[in-house]
Amino acid sequence: TQVHYIAVIAGDGIGKEVTPVAQQVLEYAIQGVAKFEFTPFDLGAERYLRDGAILPDDELEALKSYDAILLGAIGDPRIQAGILERGLLLKLRFAFDQYVNLRPSKLYKGVTSPLSKPGDIDFVVVREGTEGLYCGAGGSVRKGTPAEVATEVSINTAYGVERVVRYAFDLAMKRRKHITLVHKKNVLVNAGDMWQRIVARVGEEYPEVTHDYCHIDAATIYMVTEPSRFDVILTDNLFGDILTDEAGAVVGGVGYSASGCINASGEFPSMFEPIHGSAPDIAGRGIANPTAAVLSAAMMLRHLGYDEIAQRIEAAVEADIEQLGSTPRSTEQVGRDIIARLA
Ligand code: IPM
Ligand code: MN
Fold first, then answer.
1. Does the active-site annotation cover 58?
2. Rounded Cα gap, residues 202 and 108, in angstroms
3. Residue 129 DSSP label
4. Relative to the CA of 40, which of 23, 170, 225, 336 has its CA 20 to 30 Å away?
5. Which of 291, 338, 332, 306 is nearest to 32 (CA)?
6. CATH number of 113-251
7. Residue 281 annotated as part of some ligand binding site
8. Positions of CATH 3.40.718.10 in the chain
9. pLDDT at 253 over 90
10. pLDDT tens per residue across span 121-137
11. Ligand 1 center to residue 340 CA distance, Å?
12. Is the ipTM reported for this complex over the cut 0.90?
């Protein structure tokens, strides 16, 4: 049998509680077909507080050889904001060239949306993951003086944009065949125009896929007034960050939101993580909902080529939410319930 080597960064807070459930579901679902070998990596807040290490070079190098990375959550109120985000999460996304940040949103039966007229919400945001304002290009001069100047430069390369645009079109072909490019081309004229031209050019190769365009500010309105209009939303790194938090909220909270940071060329491992954070307020009590972690694990399966098994897990999760979504359950109980449905 084929063995898949998975690096596990459970991380902090509820990440440590939901990730083992995702692993159990994976192991159960793959049996008889292949095997997973999980290797834990001690990275995150605890490690940083213990020995000051965030992501040492040798561990980054070691991670490179895995087939995928399963990540729980990173973050701790004792650590200054930005240190682990940039030093661990963003470093992994950039080092492993995870240029597609894939974030599906679906309103499940049994979940209450805060929208009065939610309609059928089922779209996926394809967020560019390695460029834009996240590059860290820019700087500050005369810091702390009244003459201080701070710049953040958004880097958009034709190469980087084209590859994520192609990914979005390929994905649209497997869905309802519609792409909405979200940008702010009326103000960010250089990057916006380039994104638009690349979408138009690549779109010619996909005559079945329709595409339209929406400014980011208008997109945030449509997301609450008419989210069913979206199928594939294609956007840059920062717009995608903001829009996917809103997307999580309209489908009833980020507790159901999975994500994949994907190196679609296959050169480096891709990373799968729930969108929610480490939730220190409920950590340690065994009550965190592992649904998003399980759905992220299903995304990992799909990435590894197990489409059918991924679908089975998603169906089990969907049924679980519909029937038991509003019943208070422990983290482990939700895992057992999902596995029982797979049986
Ligand atoms: C996310 C997070 C990260 C991001 C932070 C923690 C750096 O908000 O995954 O959406 O901005 O990408
Ligand atoms: Mn975010």
1. no
2. 33
3. -
4. 336
5. 306
6. 3.40.718.10
7. yes
8. 1-99+265-343, 113-251
9. no
10. 999 999 999 999 999 99
11. 33
12. yes
